[in-house]
Write a structure and sequence with these properties.
With 411 residues, the chain is an alpha/beta fold. The chain contains 15 helices and 13 strands. It has two domains: 321 residues, Rossmann fold (3-Layer(aba) Sandwich), CATH 3.40.50; 47 residues. Helix 9 runs antiparallel to helix 11 and helix 11 runs antiparallel to helix 12.
Length: 411
Protein backbone atom coordinates (compact mmCIF):
# COMPACT_ATOMS: atom_id res chain seq x y z
CA UNK A 1 0.00 0.00 0.00
CA UNK A 2 1.16 3.54 -0.62
CA UNK A 3 -0.63 5.70 1.92
CA UNK A 4 2.68 7.35 2.89
CA UNK A 5 3.33 8.83 -0.55
CA UNK A 6 3.03 12.57 -0.95
CA UNK A 7 0.19 14.05 -2.94
CA UNK A 8 1.42 15.81 -6.08
CA UNK A 9 -1.01 18.53 -7.22
CA UNK A 10 0.68 18.72 -10.63
CA UNK A 11 -0.12 15.07 -11.37
CA UNK A 12 -2.52 15.09 -14.32
CA UNK A 13 -4.21 11.79 -15.06
CA UNK A 14 -6.22 13.15 -17.98
CA UNK A 15 -5.49 11.41 -21.26
CA UNK A 16 -6.77 14.13 -23.57
CA UNK A 17 -4.44 16.83 -22.24
CA UNK A 18 -1.38 14.82 -23.28
CA UNK A 19 -2.27 13.51 -26.71
CA UNK A 20 -2.21 15.60 -29.87
CA UNK A 21 -5.79 15.59 -31.17
CA UNK A 22 -4.55 16.52 -34.62
CA UNK A 23 -2.77 13.17 -34.72
CA UNK A 24 -6.00 11.25 -34.10
CA UNK A 25 -7.81 9.73 -37.11
CA UNK A 26 -9.95 12.33 -38.89
CA UNK A 27 -13.01 10.06 -38.62
CA UNK A 28 -13.38 10.46 -34.85
CA UNK A 29 -12.02 13.98 -34.29
CA UNK A 30 -15.39 15.76 -34.85
CA UNK A 31 -17.12 13.44 -32.38
CA UNK A 32 -14.41 13.93 -29.78
CA UNK A 33 -14.78 17.68 -30.29
CA UNK A 34 -18.30 17.45 -28.83
CA UNK A 35 -16.81 16.94 -25.35
CA UNK A 36 -16.61 20.07 -23.20
CA UNK A 37 -13.89 19.20 -20.68
CA UNK A 38 -10.77 17.01 -20.40
CA UNK A 39 -12.72 14.46 -18.32
CA UNK A 40 -15.48 14.25 -20.93
CA UNK A 41 -12.89 13.87 -23.68
CA UNK A 42 -11.20 11.05 -21.78
CA UNK A 43 -14.50 9.20 -21.37
CA UNK A 44 -15.57 9.78 -24.96
CA UNK A 45 -12.16 8.78 -26.35
CA UNK A 46 -12.20 5.44 -24.51
CA UNK A 47 -15.81 4.86 -25.56
CA UNK A 48 -14.98 5.62 -29.20
CA UNK A 49 -11.98 3.29 -29.22
CA UNK A 50 -14.03 0.50 -27.63
CA UNK A 51 -17.06 0.92 -29.90
CA UNK A 52 -15.01 1.23 -33.08
CA UNK A 53 -12.87 -1.77 -32.12
CA UNK A 54 -16.03 -3.87 -31.87
CA UNK A 55 -16.70 -3.52 -35.62
CA UNK A 56 -13.28 -4.42 -37.01
CA UNK A 57 -13.59 -8.08 -38.08
CA UNK A 58 -10.75 -9.94 -39.78
CA UNK A 59 -8.15 -7.58 -38.35
CA UNK A 60 -5.56 -8.97 -35.94
CA UNK A 61 -1.98 -8.80 -34.71
CA UNK A 62 0.30 -11.49 -33.33
CA UNK A 63 1.78 -11.30 -29.85
CA UNK A 64 3.95 -13.47 -27.63
CA UNK A 65 6.22 -16.43 -28.18
CA UNK A 66 3.35 -18.45 -29.64
CA UNK A 67 2.44 -15.61 -32.04
CA UNK A 68 -1.13 -15.70 -30.74
CA UNK A 69 -3.71 -13.70 -32.66
CA UNK A 70 -5.32 -10.74 -30.89
CA UNK A 71 -8.22 -8.76 -32.31
CA UNK A 72 -9.39 -5.16 -31.84
CA UNK A 73 -11.75 -5.85 -28.94
CA UNK A 74 -11.34 -3.72 -25.81
CA UNK A 75 -13.18 -4.09 -22.52
CA UNK A 76 -13.35 -0.88 -20.50
CA UNK A 77 -15.10 0.33 -17.33
CA UNK A 78 -15.46 4.08 -16.74
CA UNK A 79 -15.73 4.59 -12.99
CA UNK A 80 -17.26 7.83 -11.79
CA UNK A 81 -19.61 9.38 -9.27
CA UNK A 82 -23.08 10.63 -10.14
CA UNK A 83 -23.20 13.77 -12.31
CA UNK A 84 -19.65 13.38 -13.61
CA UNK A 85 -20.91 13.31 -17.20
CA UNK A 86 -20.53 9.57 -17.92
CA UNK A 87 -23.50 9.77 -20.28
CA UNK A 88 -21.32 11.29 -22.99
CA UNK A 89 -19.95 7.79 -23.62
CA UNK A 90 -23.32 6.91 -25.17
CA UNK A 91 -22.39 8.94 -28.25
CA UNK A 92 -20.07 6.08 -29.20
CA UNK A 93 -22.98 3.63 -29.06
CA UNK A 94 -24.78 5.59 -31.79
CA UNK A 95 -21.89 5.02 -34.17
CA UNK A 96 -22.39 1.25 -34.22
CA UNK A 97 -26.21 1.13 -34.27
CA UNK A 98 -26.43 1.19 -38.10
CA UNK A 99 -24.05 -1.77 -38.25
CA UNK A 100 -26.07 -3.62 -35.60
CA UNK A 101 -29.27 -3.08 -37.62
CA UNK A 102 -27.64 -4.80 -40.60
CA UNK A 103 -25.66 -7.43 -38.70
CA UNK A 104 -26.62 -8.17 -35.06
CA UNK A 105 -23.80 -7.00 -32.81
CA UNK A 106 -25.14 -5.47 -29.59
CA UNK A 107 -25.68 -7.70 -26.57
CA UNK A 108 -27.74 -6.24 -23.70
CA UNK A 109 -26.12 -6.21 -20.28
CA UNK A 110 -29.58 -6.79 -18.80
CA UNK A 111 -29.46 -10.50 -19.55
CA UNK A 112 -28.96 -13.69 -17.58
CA UNK A 113 -25.77 -15.59 -18.23
CA UNK A 114 -27.52 -18.30 -20.31
CA UNK A 115 -29.15 -15.57 -22.46
CA UNK A 116 -25.83 -13.76 -22.83
CA UNK A 117 -24.07 -16.97 -23.85
CA UNK A 118 -26.81 -17.91 -26.30
CA UNK A 119 -26.71 -14.49 -27.97
CA UNK A 120 -22.91 -14.49 -28.23
CA UNK A 121 -22.99 -17.98 -29.76
CA UNK A 122 -25.72 -16.93 -32.21
CA UNK A 123 -23.49 -14.05 -33.34
CA UNK A 124 -20.57 -16.46 -33.90
CA UNK A 125 -18.68 -15.13 -30.88
CA UNK A 126 -18.79 -11.47 -31.90
CA UNK A 127 -20.56 -8.85 -29.82
CA UNK A 128 -20.54 -5.49 -28.07
CA UNK A 129 -21.97 -4.78 -24.62
CA UNK A 130 -22.57 -1.10 -23.90
CA UNK A 131 -24.25 -0.15 -20.63
CA UNK A 132 -24.28 3.34 -19.14
CA UNK A 133 -25.77 2.15 -15.85
CA UNK A 134 -23.43 -0.23 -14.07
CA UNK A 135 -26.26 -1.29 -11.77
CA UNK A 136 -27.92 -3.01 -14.73
CA UNK A 137 -24.90 -5.27 -14.96
CA UNK A 138 -24.27 -5.86 -11.29
CA UNK A 139 -27.93 -6.43 -10.35
CA UNK A 140 -28.56 -8.97 -13.12
CA UNK A 141 -25.14 -10.58 -12.96
CA UNK A 142 -25.07 -10.90 -9.18
CA UNK A 143 -26.21 -14.52 -9.21
CA UNK A 144 -23.73 -15.48 -11.96
CA UNK A 145 -20.75 -13.30 -11.19
CA UNK A 146 -18.28 -16.16 -11.48
CA UNK A 147 -19.65 -17.26 -14.86
CA UNK A 148 -19.61 -13.74 -16.29
CA UNK A 149 -16.19 -12.98 -14.87
CA UNK A 150 -14.74 -16.15 -16.39
CA UNK A 151 -16.41 -15.54 -19.75
CA UNK A 152 -15.21 -11.93 -19.97
CA UNK A 153 -11.68 -12.92 -18.95
CA UNK A 154 -11.54 -15.62 -21.61
CA UNK A 155 -13.05 -13.30 -24.23
CA UNK A 156 -10.34 -10.72 -23.51
CA UNK A 157 -7.78 -13.36 -24.54
CA UNK A 158 -9.96 -14.86 -27.32
CA UNK A 159 -9.96 -18.17 -25.47
CA UNK A 160 -12.75 -20.69 -26.01
CA UNK A 161 -15.81 -20.18 -23.79
CA UNK A 162 -17.72 -23.36 -23.08
CA UNK A 163 -21.00 -24.17 -21.40
CA UNK A 164 -22.24 -27.60 -20.41
CA UNK A 165 -25.61 -28.67 -19.04
CA UNK A 166 -27.31 -32.03 -18.69
CA UNK A 167 -29.06 -31.81 -22.05
CA UNK A 168 -26.66 -29.64 -24.01
CA UNK A 169 -23.03 -28.63 -24.35
CA UNK A 170 -21.57 -25.97 -26.61
CA UNK A 171 -18.41 -23.97 -27.15
CA UNK A 172 -17.64 -20.53 -28.57
CA UNK A 173 -14.17 -20.62 -30.12
CA UNK A 174 -12.16 -17.39 -30.39
CA UNK A 175 -14.78 -14.98 -28.98
CA UNK A 176 -14.37 -11.37 -30.06
CA UNK A 177 -16.30 -9.40 -27.44
CA UNK A 178 -16.03 -5.67 -26.76
CA UNK A 179 -17.56 -4.01 -23.70
CA UNK A 180 -17.98 -0.45 -22.41
CA UNK A 181 -19.52 0.01 -18.96
CA UNK A 182 -19.93 3.13 -16.88
CA UNK A 183 -20.85 3.19 -13.22
CA UNK A 184 -19.86 3.88 -9.64
CA UNK A 185 -16.94 2.31 -7.85
CA UNK A 186 -19.30 0.00 -5.95
CA UNK A 187 -20.62 -1.36 -9.25
CA UNK A 188 -17.10 -1.74 -10.61
CA UNK A 189 -16.01 -3.51 -7.42
CA UNK A 190 -18.87 -6.00 -7.76
CA UNK A 191 -17.48 -7.03 -11.15
CA UNK A 192 -13.83 -7.00 -10.03
CA UNK A 193 -13.93 -8.01 -6.36
CA UNK A 194 -10.16 -8.42 -5.90
CA UNK A 195 -6.87 -7.44 -7.51
CA UNK A 196 -5.86 -11.11 -7.54
CA UNK A 197 -8.77 -11.80 -9.88
CA UNK A 198 -7.34 -12.37 -13.35
CA UNK A 199 -9.95 -10.10 -14.90
CA UNK A 200 -8.58 -6.97 -13.20
CA UNK A 201 -5.57 -6.66 -15.52
CA UNK A 202 -7.68 -7.42 -18.59
CA UNK A 203 -10.32 -4.74 -17.93
CA UNK A 204 -9.17 -1.22 -18.79
CA UNK A 205 -10.24 1.19 -16.07
CA UNK A 206 -10.74 4.95 -16.33
CA UNK A 207 -11.49 6.81 -13.10
CA UNK A 208 -13.30 10.16 -13.26
CA UNK A 209 -13.49 12.01 -9.97
CA UNK A 210 -15.10 15.30 -10.90
CA UNK A 211 -18.55 16.72 -11.55
CA UNK A 212 -19.91 18.09 -14.80
CA UNK A 213 -20.83 21.77 -14.78
CA UNK A 214 -24.54 22.32 -15.35
CA UNK A 215 -23.79 24.94 -18.03
CA UNK A 216 -22.07 22.33 -20.21
CA UNK A 217 -25.15 20.14 -20.55
CA UNK A 218 -26.86 22.19 -23.26
CA UNK A 219 -24.13 23.35 -25.59
CA UNK A 220 -24.36 21.49 -28.91
CA UNK A 221 -27.47 22.12 -31.07
CA UNK A 222 -29.22 18.80 -31.69
CA UNK A 223 -29.05 19.16 -35.49
CA UNK A 224 -25.28 19.68 -35.39
CA UNK A 225 -24.74 16.75 -33.02
CA UNK A 226 -26.87 14.44 -35.16
CA UNK A 227 -24.94 15.50 -38.24
CA UNK A 228 -21.56 14.78 -36.66
CA UNK A 229 -22.66 11.40 -35.34
CA UNK A 230 -24.37 10.48 -38.62
CA UNK A 231 -21.32 11.28 -40.73
CA UNK A 232 -18.98 9.29 -38.50
CA UNK A 233 -21.42 6.37 -38.37
CA UNK A 234 -21.54 6.24 -42.17
CA UNK A 235 -17.75 6.24 -42.42
CA UNK A 236 -17.48 3.52 -39.79
CA UNK A 237 -20.11 1.45 -41.62
CA UNK A 238 -18.07 1.61 -44.83
CA UNK A 239 -14.95 0.56 -42.94
CA UNK A 240 -16.82 -2.35 -41.37
CA UNK A 241 -18.09 -3.53 -44.76
CA UNK A 242 -14.57 -3.36 -46.19
CA UNK A 243 -13.10 -5.43 -43.36
CA UNK A 244 -16.01 -7.88 -43.20
CA UNK A 245 -15.77 -8.76 -46.88
CA UNK A 246 -11.96 -8.96 -46.92
CA UNK A 247 -9.63 -11.78 -46.04
CA UNK A 248 -8.03 -11.74 -42.56
CA UNK A 249 -5.58 -8.87 -42.43
CA UNK A 250 -2.56 -8.66 -40.13
CA UNK A 251 -1.48 -5.50 -38.34
CA UNK A 252 1.99 -5.04 -36.91
CA UNK A 253 4.17 -2.57 -35.11
CA UNK A 254 7.47 -1.69 -36.76
CA UNK A 255 10.61 -3.30 -35.35
CA UNK A 256 11.55 -0.01 -33.69
CA UNK A 257 8.08 0.41 -32.16
CA UNK A 258 8.06 -3.16 -30.86
CA UNK A 259 11.49 -2.68 -29.27
CA UNK A 260 10.39 0.63 -27.76
CA UNK A 261 7.23 -0.89 -26.31
CA UNK A 262 9.12 -3.72 -24.64
CA UNK A 263 11.82 -1.45 -23.28
CA UNK A 264 9.29 1.11 -22.11
CA UNK A 265 7.21 -1.33 -20.07
CA UNK A 266 10.28 -3.06 -18.64
CA UNK A 267 12.01 0.13 -17.51
CA UNK A 268 9.25 2.68 -16.89
CA UNK A 269 7.27 0.95 -14.13
CA UNK A 270 9.50 -1.10 -11.78
CA UNK A 271 8.98 1.46 -9.02
CA UNK A 272 5.21 1.24 -9.47
CA UNK A 273 5.40 -2.53 -9.04
CA UNK A 274 7.54 -2.12 -5.92
CA UNK A 275 5.03 0.35 -4.49
CA UNK A 276 1.94 -1.73 -5.20
CA UNK A 277 3.36 -5.25 -5.10
CA UNK A 278 3.77 -8.09 -7.55
CA UNK A 279 0.00 -8.39 -8.03
CA UNK A 280 0.23 -5.25 -10.16
CA UNK A 281 2.88 -6.78 -12.43
CA UNK A 282 0.25 -8.42 -14.64
CA UNK A 283 -1.25 -5.00 -15.39
CA UNK A 284 2.08 -3.80 -16.79
CA UNK A 285 2.56 -6.94 -18.87
CA UNK A 286 -0.96 -6.94 -20.32
CA UNK A 287 -0.79 -3.23 -21.09
CA UNK A 288 1.46 -4.19 -24.03
CA UNK A 289 -1.52 -5.99 -25.61
CA UNK A 290 -3.87 -3.09 -24.82
CA UNK A 291 -1.47 -0.56 -26.37
CA UNK A 292 -1.12 -2.61 -29.55
CA UNK A 293 -4.89 -3.05 -29.75
CA UNK A 294 -5.37 0.71 -29.45
CA UNK A 295 -2.69 1.34 -32.08
CA UNK A 296 -4.43 -1.14 -34.41
CA UNK A 297 -7.80 0.57 -33.94
CA UNK A 298 -6.29 4.00 -34.66
CA UNK A 299 -4.57 2.68 -37.79
CA UNK A 300 -7.72 0.96 -39.04
CA UNK A 301 -9.75 4.16 -38.62
CA UNK A 302 -7.48 5.76 -41.22
CA UNK A 303 -7.89 2.93 -43.73
CA UNK A 304 -9.34 3.70 -47.15
CA UNK A 305 -11.88 1.11 -48.22
CA UNK A 306 -9.59 -0.05 -51.02
CA UNK A 307 -6.57 -0.87 -48.84
CA UNK A 308 -5.37 -4.46 -48.95
CA UNK A 309 -2.54 -6.46 -47.45
CA UNK A 310 -0.66 -6.06 -44.22
CA UNK A 311 -1.05 -2.93 -42.10
CA UNK A 312 1.88 -1.30 -40.36
CA UNK A 313 1.52 1.15 -37.52
CA UNK A 314 2.54 4.75 -38.10
CA UNK A 315 4.72 6.50 -35.56
CA UNK A 316 1.94 8.94 -34.70
CA UNK A 317 -0.55 6.15 -33.94
CA UNK A 318 2.01 4.27 -31.86
CA UNK A 319 2.87 7.46 -29.97
CA UNK A 320 -0.81 8.13 -29.24
CA UNK A 321 -1.46 4.54 -28.15
CA UNK A 322 1.56 4.56 -25.83
CA UNK A 323 0.47 7.83 -24.21
CA UNK A 324 -3.02 6.44 -23.65
CA UNK A 325 -1.50 3.30 -22.14
CA UNK A 326 0.74 5.33 -19.85
CA UNK A 327 -2.25 7.15 -18.38
CA UNK A 328 -4.44 4.04 -18.15
CA UNK A 329 -1.73 2.31 -16.11
CA UNK A 330 -1.95 5.13 -13.55
CA UNK A 331 -5.77 4.93 -13.53
CA UNK A 332 -5.53 1.18 -12.95
CA UNK A 333 -3.05 1.80 -10.16
CA UNK A 334 -5.65 4.03 -8.51
CA UNK A 335 -8.30 1.33 -8.98
CA UNK A 336 -5.85 -1.19 -7.52
CA UNK A 337 -5.62 0.86 -4.33
CA UNK A 338 -9.38 1.35 -4.13
CA UNK A 339 -10.17 -2.34 -4.54
CA UNK A 340 -7.72 -3.21 -1.79
CA UNK A 341 -8.92 -0.57 0.61
CA UNK A 342 -12.54 0.34 0.05
CA UNK A 343 -15.97 -1.05 -0.68
CA UNK A 344 -17.85 2.26 -0.64
CA UNK A 345 -20.42 2.82 -3.40
CA UNK A 346 -18.78 6.03 -4.58
CA UNK A 347 -15.18 6.82 -5.43
CA UNK A 348 -13.20 7.20 -2.17
CA UNK A 349 -10.47 9.79 -2.08
CA UNK A 350 -7.08 8.37 -2.96
CA UNK A 351 -3.70 10.03 -3.00
CA UNK A 352 -2.14 10.33 -6.45
CA UNK A 353 0.88 8.17 -7.10
CA UNK A 354 4.09 10.08 -6.44
CA UNK A 355 5.20 10.74 -10.01
CA UNK A 356 8.19 12.66 -8.69
CA UNK A 357 9.51 9.54 -6.95
CA UNK A 358 8.65 7.30 -9.89
CA UNK A 359 10.36 9.58 -12.40
CA UNK A 360 13.55 9.83 -10.36
CA UNK A 361 13.76 6.03 -10.23
CA UNK A 362 13.57 5.85 -14.02
CA UNK A 363 16.64 8.00 -14.55
CA UNK A 364 20.14 6.49 -14.81
CA UNK A 365 22.76 7.24 -12.14
CA UNK A 366 24.05 10.13 -14.25
CA UNK A 367 21.77 12.00 -16.64
CA UNK A 368 21.53 15.18 -18.67
CA UNK A 369 18.72 17.72 -18.89
CA UNK A 370 17.54 16.43 -22.27
CA UNK A 371 17.13 12.90 -20.85
CA UNK A 372 15.20 14.34 -17.89
CA UNK A 373 12.85 16.31 -20.15
CA UNK A 374 12.34 13.31 -22.47
CA UNK A 375 11.36 11.02 -19.58
CA UNK A 376 9.01 13.71 -18.24
CA UNK A 377 7.29 14.07 -21.62
CA UNK A 378 6.71 10.30 -21.79
CA UNK A 379 4.91 10.54 -18.44
CA UNK A 380 2.92 13.62 -19.50
CA UNK A 381 4.73 15.98 -17.10
CA UNK A 382 5.26 19.61 -18.26
CA UNK A 383 8.87 20.74 -18.71
CA UNK A 384 8.43 23.59 -16.22
CA UNK A 385 7.27 21.09 -13.59
CA UNK A 386 10.15 18.67 -14.10
CA UNK A 387 12.77 21.42 -13.88
CA UNK A 388 11.22 22.57 -10.58
CA UNK A 389 11.34 18.98 -9.31
CA UNK A 390 15.00 18.75 -10.32
CA UNK A 391 15.76 21.86 -8.25
CA UNK A 392 13.96 20.27 -5.30
CA UNK A 393 16.01 17.07 -5.71
CA UNK A 394 19.20 19.13 -5.58
CA UNK A 395 18.02 21.05 -2.51
CA UNK A 396 17.17 17.83 -0.63
CA UNK A 397 20.42 16.09 -1.62
CA UNK A 398 18.84 13.44 -3.83
CA UNK A 399 20.67 14.80 -6.87
CA UNK A 400 23.83 16.84 -7.35
CA UNK A 401 24.76 19.01 -10.33
CA UNK A 402 28.08 17.88 -11.84
CA UNK A 403 28.10 20.59 -14.47
CA UNK A 404 25.62 22.66 -16.42
CA UNK A 405 22.84 20.33 -17.57
CA UNK A 406 24.63 17.26 -16.15
CA UNK A 407 23.41 15.59 -12.93
CA UNK A 408 24.07 12.58 -10.71
CA UNK A 409 21.72 10.74 -8.35
CA UNK A 410 23.06 10.53 -4.77
CA UNK A 411 20.66 7.93 -3.39
Amino acid sequence: MIENLNSIPETDLHISTHINENELPAMIRPVLGMAQSPAEKDMLLMALLTACGSVMPNLYFRYGIAAKRYYANLQCFIVGSAACGKGIANLALELVRPIHEATPLLIPGDATYPAFYQQLAKQHGRGYIHESEGSVITDVWRSSTVSYNTALRKAAEHETISRSRCREASVIPCPQLSMLLTGTFGQYHALVPSVENGYFSRLLTLIVDEHQAFSSRYVQPAEKSDGIIGTCAQQLYRLYESLYSAKPREFSLTDDQRARLGQHLETAYPTLIRLLGEDFHSVILRMAVHIERIAMILTALRMPSTMNGRLECSDEDYRTAELIGNKLILHMAQAFQLIRGSEKPAIPSVKPLDQKQILLSLLPEEFESKRLVAEAQMQGIPQSTIMRWCSQWIETGLVCRLSYGHYKKMA
